[in-house]
Amino acid sequence: MKAQSLQYQLKDSESIGEVVTALTGQFQLTGEPEKTVRHILHDSFDWRLFQSGLQLDEARGAGLHELTLRKLEDDSACETIRLEGPVAGFFHDYPPGLLRDRLATTLQMRTLLPQVEIRRRERLLRLLDGEQKTVLRIALQEQSARPPGRGEYQPMAALIRLLPVRGYDKPLAQVSRFLTAVLELKPQVDPLIVLGLSAIGRQPLDYSSKLNFNLQPLMPAGEVARQIHHTLLNTLEANLPGTRADLDSEFLHDLRVAVRRTRSALSQIKGVFPESEVEKYKERFAWIGQLTGPTRDLDVYLLGFDDYRNSLPEPYRPDLEPLHAFLQTHQKSEQRAMVRKLNSPHFHTLLKEWRAFLAAPPGTESACAHVHKPIGKLAAKRIYRTFGLVLKEGLAINPHSPPEALHELRKSCKKLRYLLEFFQSLYPEDRIKPLIKSLKGLLDNLGDYQDLEVQADKLREFAHQMVAEGEVPADTLLAMGMLVDGLLKRQQASRLVFADRFALFAGREQVAAYQTLFGPDRKKRDAAGEQA
């Protein structure tokens, strides 16, 4: 097993010379010419590689342009490929191999974005044994960082890295002891991307669409509502540039989720804002949902196109290519129309006024019924009431219930999910997480049931639209008919699964858990907590 490389932080670039002098006096060293390399580190907007323990490093230098996928834990390379042009955004643009496979698993539909650019001046020393064999490589690195392609470089900590040679562990240990015991250097374990981002005032995971509040039961409900809405507005605005540029489909997806959560919070966290303001902003955010809907719908069909094609017998798969071209053409058209509206004064005014409303000191809402009440009691009451509604609607569904009954249940389940996610930090993680997971399982089933029906109807609509816009091969229409038939069969299968999925959600243990966390008995615990 190859020994792991080690690195140590120097006080500054000037101390590199002092380290070289000290090492030369103790060990037999030979040097190589100094070289300068630019490292551009890439990840998705939501840090999928970093979260998976990976780092994608584009290295540029004299005669050098390569891309290396590395492990964060030890900087070891998973695979390196030479580049002839710029770094590709999506995994499917790379040649078959380990790098592509790992990117496919990790990134899925997300594109790569340059996160930080690092300029590194490196001097490499080789430690020799008595036979003049290289037994250890020592890299002395002076580095600076900037946002990719722009701005002034900012200084980073200088590093000394020990790069082991297989079979020579003893020299690695000797030099390591010398650096720590004699030169008193401190180990540096942070990955390159962390060090580079820190130099430009950023850090990994500085964006996530997940809700991560730290609420306390006695916090005023009005303060909590503002905190939730501020976070959602920040998420919406963070995704606007990527949505406008159509970098990948997840920017628009996250933007729309932030809008839906905002509308849900306005409806579900009651009595903290004047009702007139609540209704006004619910309507205005519904407008954002409407203007972004057509583009998102086409994104979904394009994302699912491979599954559509693969669901057909192989001889019929090429017949769907005209549908793929139709979807791409209309997605581009809807994208342009959406961007015009996102750039409109009306849209900018909405966001500006909403942020000003959230930032303003309490005014008329100070008279609202719940604005000063502890959020713990209000959240539990609202969650328990919504859970009761879900139970009532779900238990009323039987094999003969119309599709509309399942659609209404899905809406109620979404309300419950948003409430649980908003307020999950008020409850023990090991008790709230299973409830959210169980609810997601039910929602997945209800979503499949409704979405498959919508997709089947939409494909029929596309077929008519394609005919109206020009000639369509008969084989394409036949293949689309096969798709519709397959989607409706899958919908019926999901309908048969519903009863079992709902039974799991509404089981005795689940009901008891909701009663314990959110039911009337909680008042005794709340009172005991306040006295304490």
Spell out the blueprint of helices and strands.
Elements: E1 6-9, H1 15-26, E2 29-31, E3 35-43, H2 48-51, E4 54-61, E5 64-71, E6 77-82, H3 98-107, E7 113-128, E8 134-146, E9 154-155, E10 159-164, H4 169-182, E11 186-187, H5 192-199, H6 221-238, H7 240-245, H8 249-268, H9 275-303, H10 305-310, H11 321-342, H12 345-359, H13 375-395, H14 403-423, H15 429-469, H16 474-505, H17 508-518, H18 522-531
Antiparallel strand pairs: 1-10, 1-11, 2-7, 3-4, 3-7, 4-5, 5-6, 7-8, 8-9, 8-10
Question: What does the model show?
Answer:
The protein is α+β, with helices and mostly antiparallel strands and 532 residues long. 56% of the residues lie in helices and 14% in strands. The protein has 18 helices and eleven strands. The protein has helices spanning 15-26, 48-51, 98-107, 169-182, 192-199, 221-238, 240-245, 249-268, 275-303, 305-310, 321-342, 345-359, 375-395, 403-423, 429-469, 474-505, 508-518, 522-531; strands at 6-9, 29-31, 35-43, 54-61, 64-71, 77-82, 113-128, 134-146, 154-155, 159-164, 186-187. Mean pLDDT is 93; it is low at 528-532.
What tags apply to this protein structure?
alpha+beta, 532 residues
Shape: globular
Q: Would you tell me the structural class of the helices and strands?
A: alpha+beta
Distance between the termini: 56 Å
Question: Using DSSP, what is the number of strands?
Answer: 11
Helix content: 55-70%
Major β-sheet profile? 11 strands, antiparallel
